[in-house]
Amino acid sequence: MSLKIHITEGPAPYEQVRAQISEQARAGTLPVGYRLPTVRGLAEQLGLAAGTVAKAYRALEADGVIETRGRNGTFVAAAGSAAEREAAGAAAAYAERVRRLGLGEEEALAAVRDALRAAYRE
Fold first, then answer.
1. Which of the four pLDDT bands, split at 50, 70 and 90, describes residue 121?
2. Cα→Cα distances 78→14, 27, 93, Å
């Protein structure tokens, strides 16, 4: 696992950790079942506070990207399908909401594109 954290620029360090682990899991660089370093171990490795890494791990677990197995450690979960199901559910809810608001497909897609651009700029 290779993470590069930029303390002085870009998103908050915990978000950089979260995004990079999530991307590596999605890309298969971190395969399902890969055991992640402990919170303290990764924090030490990256020169971050343990609380910063713990916050990233909590977010990753909430997203279904990783799973903690008690004292056995933290592992990459089979996140692709869970993440895709969650995204599909959110998309369906959004589609229903914009339909009720009376927006057309192009207006709804433009709103999504704007939101995605803003989210990935952070």
1. confident
2. 22, 12, 24
